[in-house]
């Protein structure tokens, strides 16, 4: 019963105690009092029903809270499982990246070494080619200058050729004479520009057949060779 209802009862009680009020007013007041007394019963049932609903709702809330309280454990387990999976996945990716980095470094070193080797080989080849080209160019320039020094065709050209032939003969003779005085040198020690080849004699094959001696025909040039210690030769003597 709330304060408002209590105040209404007090006011109606004052009406009952007032002798000046008519009977009709008293009857109406009794009816109103009866109605007022019945209202709290209805309100009480409503309150009981509300209490029952509240208890049911409290039970439902309690179950929900219990399930909510128990749910984090499963969530924690799921979170732990997910965390382990994520950690394993991160480790796998890390290993793959690490392996890929190692392979990239290895390929880089191999390519770098290959490039260095190719560069060295190319430099050597270029050096060899450059040396050969320089040698060829020097020889070419040398003979080109000599070609320019040759006189044109005519009497001067013939005289120039005869002078060259005379120089060659004199040089050949001097080489032969010096070769008789000096010892022979090893072939490996000979220089490309050496003139020792001029001292070699040119010999052709002799087509005359060599006659073999026949053992049945003996002449004055025949010399018998035997072993005097042999018993057979001793009996022959």
TrEMBL record:
It comes from the Eukaryota. Residues 1-87, 175-194 are annotated as: Disordered. Residues 38-48, 73-82, 180-193 have a biased composition (Acidic residues). Residues 7-21, 49-64 have a biased composition (Basic and acidic residues). This is Uncharacterized protein.
């Amino acid at each position: 019963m709330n304060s408002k209802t209590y105040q209404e009862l007090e006011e109606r009680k004052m009406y009952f105690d007032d002798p000046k009020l008519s009977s009709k007013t008293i009857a109406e007041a009794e009816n109103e009092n009866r109605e007022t007394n019945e209202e709290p019963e209805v309100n009480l049932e409503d309150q009981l029903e509300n209490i029952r609903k509240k208890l049911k709702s409290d039970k439902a809330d309690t179950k929900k809270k219990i399930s909510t309280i128990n749910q984090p454990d499963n969530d924690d387990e799921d979170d732990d499982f997910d965390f382990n999976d994520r950690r394993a996945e991160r480790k796998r990716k890390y290993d793959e990246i690490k392996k890929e980095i190692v392979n990239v470094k290895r390929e880089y070193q191999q390519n770098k070494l290959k490039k260095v080797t190719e560069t060295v080989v190319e430099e050597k080849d270029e050096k060899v080619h450059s040396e050969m080209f320089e040698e060829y160019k020097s020889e070419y320039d040398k003979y080109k200058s000599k070609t320019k020094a040759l006189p044109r065709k005519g009497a001067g050209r013939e005289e120039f050729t005869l002078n060259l032939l005379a120089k060659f003969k004199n040089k050949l003779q001097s080489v032969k004479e010096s070769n008789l005085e000096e010892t022979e040198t090893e072939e490996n020690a000979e220089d490309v520009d050496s003139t020792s080849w001029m001292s070699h004699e040119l010999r052709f094959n002799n087509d005359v057949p060599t006659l073999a001696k026949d053992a049945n025909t003996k002449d004055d040039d025949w010399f018998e060779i035997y072993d005097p210690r042999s018993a057979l030769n001793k009996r022959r003597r």
